[in-house]
Amino acid sequence: MSSAIEKLMRLASAEDRFDYSAAELRETQVAALDERFQERKDRIKLLGHRAREAGTTEIRGREDMVPLLFPHTVYKSYPESFLIEERWDRLGKWLGTVSPYPISSIEISDITDIDDWVERLRAKGHYVSCSSGTTGKSAMLLASDRDMDWSRTDTVNVFSWGSGVQPTRDRRMMGLAPTAAVPKNLVIGEAQQAAFGDPAKERFRLPIPAITVGSLTKMIVLRKKIADGTARPEELAVFEQTAEARQEALDQAMIAGAEALIKYRDEKLYISGLWNALYQVAKIVRDMGYSAQDFHPDNCIYVGGGLKRAQLPPDYQEFVHQTFNIPANKDFQNYSMQELNSGMPKCQKGDRYHVPPWLVPFILDEEGLTLLPHETGEIEGRAAFYDLSIDGRWGGIITGDKISLNFSPCACGCEGASVRNNIVRYADLPGDDKIGCAGTVDAYVRGLS
Amino acid sequence: MNAIVAVLKPADAVVSAPFFLRGELFEGQDAIHRSRDLGVAFATPRIALDRVVHPRTQVPPLLNVPLAEIIDFLVETGQRIRDPNNPFMRECVDRMTVTHVLPRAVLEWQTRSAAAYLDKRLLQTVVEQNFPDPKALDEWVPKQDFTGRKSFVRAFAPRLIHVLPGNSPGVAVKSIAQGALVKAINLFKMSSSDPFTTVAVLRIMADIDRDHPIVKSMSAVYWRGGDDALERVLYRPQYFDKIVAWGGGDAISNVIKYLGPGFQLVSFDPKTSISMVGREAVSCDEALDLTADLAAADVMVLNQEACVASRFIFVEANQGEADRFCERLHARIVEKAAASGDTRPLDMDLREQIDMLVMLDDEFRVWGKTDGKGLVIRSDEPVDFHPINKTANVVRVDSLADAVRYVNVATQTVGFYPFERMPDYRDRLASCGAQRIVRLGEAGPSTIGNPHDAMYPLHRFVHWMAHEDGVEPH
After folding, report:
1. Each residue's pLDDT tens digit, A13-62
2. Which residues of A touch B349 (CB under 8 A)?
3. Containing H/E element for B312?
4. Which residues of B touch A136 (CB under 8 A)?
5. Pairing state of beta strands B218-221 and A334-335?
6. What is the ipTM of this complex?
7. Residue B381 burial (10 A CB sphere; 0-12, 13-18, 19+)
């Protein structure tokens, strides 16, 4: 690793890491972007292609980076037939176009399913995570051992900074999220357990089968077959039954989660989950006659992700916090995504997400083509980042999020760049009523719903 | 944003889009909307809801106007649309260039050619093809069955909401004409990329005779599709009989929740069109040149914005032959794109997926770049994405029979070569859901009065009413 990157990465565990202003980081960040670009341009095939098309040979300013940022959809750009027809060699070749490291050859003749393929790649140091999109293609994100190591440290730092909870290994871990068992999630879970969990107390997990890459892609494959007209009615009926059984198991698991919380209510808890599941469990706990006064006054909570389009009442956060007696100063929120390695924890005082020095933020126009001028104050637009902590793939990503980025100091006292707590996905914004007569079968044939 | 548009109209200009309600023009700046394609703002008045609904207790104004008179009125309208000095049309194209993805010259050509639908013989043929006895539109037609039971049947004037698409001004003209031919009370819901053409045509009609029943039967407004506040109010059988909707996805799923007895959907679904090119095409250079030229014509209908425009071209050939076809096809598409002056770059998502295929170059081959100047992708299976903006996917097959499995209910037009093999394929294509098979190169034109989207639309629009009149005494 070379100097500018090193300088920024050295701040990873620094107490004052959110205190460096955008202006004072600017020069080092641009130098770091160039270092990374020079080092990767001949190793990541797609990056090389992009650089040639844009005529980029050097990063002299942040704007030079814009044509080299990958849209988040790039990790969905594999031809779907590779997945459906289980053409592992082709999927491997596709991974090779976005990987900085040559994809090691693996034995593919006897691979049983995608979980097996993912496992064999993992054994060679290639960690493949899948996003849980059930309606469209699933993104496949590649990571390296270094990325896994980083996630282990960063997740603890982020949680500790945002929640004020010290990693003193004195809590019972209560995992209430039906999350996908992909490498990054697993590593984060283990790291949190090791840092905050009491080694003498067993970690609670929802009693449901692991959601693997395979179970996620199964749905995607079926959706495609439905659209193609190749799904048989019996196949669909079986799927409907499986979905129903899965929902039932999940409902049961929520009850088991509520019962466990009640059982351990006197202990100091570390509760983790997604808002939707946490709200459901909280509701069951209340219905069973328990609330704040029954729980330990020093509980803490780790919430991953946004609402994921779940329909919850407006006061769902207060409802969850009050049920489990989470003190106001232990409210934890984090802005991140599968595509990034690093988190942006929210401060208590300013209600803003803080961007660490090794994560270079860009605000682009809605189309994601142009960098908006930004020297001071706050501007709004499409979020893009270069995450210098990413090793196993290119760190530049254009997100689907609309954010407000501020270069002025936050009310919490931090001088660094921060993001307002009003993030929305462009895809969720109203106003898209464009219709035309040219479309695909997906546009009107009923899918999985 | 398109560079040409940016020069002509700054993005912050707010264009005004007036409404037309049963003969009256409404102007105002009560609401600001955004055209999704170009992100341009346009201002509209408030919708005077009571004015768009014609009470059921009053018969439709056009009911007893003879069809011949309606056709004459439409023909006169067409002449005025074609007049290059017509102030309403000129103003309309001026405004449209701000909100529409297509360049001005294409839009002007489209509006002029849209008026071609307003031709006397054409309109008469459309009616004759849609109704076994067109007299039912003008009068109660007497009937008697073999038991001697008598009755009168009328193709009664319906109340229609038309949800218009934004990709072709031609649909606006055609919808107005069809609504008039069935003597309907019509409410046109315009789209955000073209909230102008329908009102412009209705203004021309009001200019001919502002008190004519045809003018009193037409309203055109804009609201954001899916706006519950409005749709909950208007989408009711007490006010309308049928909703005639173009498009799919959200546009249709929003409509579906209001359907029920008395309020039905006639949908012109979103369609994909394809081409099937037999091995005869790759037999010699002459055949290759000819078929590449024909295929390019089908790809480039309305610069590939139309549903009849071909997107997937199945070619019965080996890889080398397919590549020779692709090379020629690409050259023809590039020529047509350059001639149209349309240089919109590809969307980021599409660009991303195509760039990836360039990387996977042992299985895919790409001619051209993702710069909007025309592009051809060769593959062994159709690509995952929807080829649009001058992008053709040539799919190599061993036999055209292998291509049939990619045909489905969303397949509209199949351009075919050689022509003599078409009868071999038409049953199989219909069985899979396709709706038209045409000679390669002729995706655009269609026989006047032919079914559209597997139906005779006018026949479905009307309210078929029977007057039973007892039994003939023996």
Report:
1. 899 999 999 999 999 999 999 999 999 999 999 999 999 989 999 999 99
2. 71, 73
3. strand B310-316
4. none
5. unpaired
6. 0.81
7. middle
